[in-house]
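User: Could you go from structure to sequence for me? I need the amino acid at each position, not a summary. Structure tokens:
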């Protein structure tokens, strides 16, 4: 077996016998090797991915917990209309207007109100 050192680029071959026939396999080898390079093991690569996912989930939970504690800018009490103190009663509906008849109304696109939610 040949050890690659960055200087033995080029065409190489290996010879072997298959069914008593001598065969030669040619291949070209070219690579770049650096001093600080290393081959990462699959377990280490998987561990890095799993730790990244766990770290991301942890940061998401911390952000969720911190934002849940904070309230909105308004007060916590619900909005209530001011009570009237013995003022006049609301006016009765005017008899000048007739209520709408559901059978005579048009069913065009913008003539009906659709409630959502």
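Assistant: Here is the amino acid at each position, in order:
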């Amino acid at each position: 077996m040949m050890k690659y050192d960055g200087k033995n680029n080029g065409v190489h071959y290996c010879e072997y016998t298959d069914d008593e026939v001598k065969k030669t396999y040619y291949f070209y080898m070219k690579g770049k090797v650096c001093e600080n390079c290393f081959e990462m093991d699959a377990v280490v690569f998987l561990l890095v991915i799993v730790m990244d996912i766990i770290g991301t989930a942890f940061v998401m939970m911390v952000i969720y917990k911190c934002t849940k504690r904070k309230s909105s800018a308004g007060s916590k009490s619900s909005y209530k209309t001011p009570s009237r103190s013995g003022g006049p009663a609301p006016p009765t509906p005017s008899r000048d207007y007739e209520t709408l008849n559901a059978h005579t109304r048009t069913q065009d696109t913008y003539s009906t109100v659709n409630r959502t939610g």
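One structural detail worth keeping in mind: Helices lie at 42-69.
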